[in-house]
Amino acid sequence: MQEFTAATELADWGWPETRALGGGSDDPFEAASLGGTWRPKDRHFGVWHEGRVVAHAGSVVAPVEVGGQRFDVVGIGGVIVDPALRGRGLARLAVAGALDAARADGLDRALLFCLPDRAPLYTRLGWFPLPDPVTADQPDGPTPVPVGGMWKPLVPGADWPDGPVRLHSLPM
Questions:
Q1: Which domain does 137 fall in, by range?
Q2: Global pTM value
């Protein structure tokens, strides 16, 4: 049985590491066709195996407004697993590291965007689809995010208000 570490925060992570982890693909998230500008992640979490990172999740703190309420969320993105090791729960471990750090920082909700074929994975991990499109910042002004949003409570009792969602940030 292969042993993997719990996710740890990575001090140095960027595009070269992401591309390498994605098998050398120039579009490791299969999202180039979506267009738009996506926000770089401020923090990075990795799962290690045999001396190398085999899964990654990034995070940012971002302000949202929902139904007139404004609050910060941790935005999760850049989730990627070594193609040879997919299906072993490594995305779950990487995302858990990012969510644990967000909880420690006092955040109570998480937000992510994903392609439709990835939504079932996140649903199994306790994420809930948002009923309506999210509007987010773009260089030319607020624009609907071209993929579905999902949210997750990070603490007991956290809920998602009803109403349109406005992300006051680039999408992550």
A1: 8-167
A2: 0.92
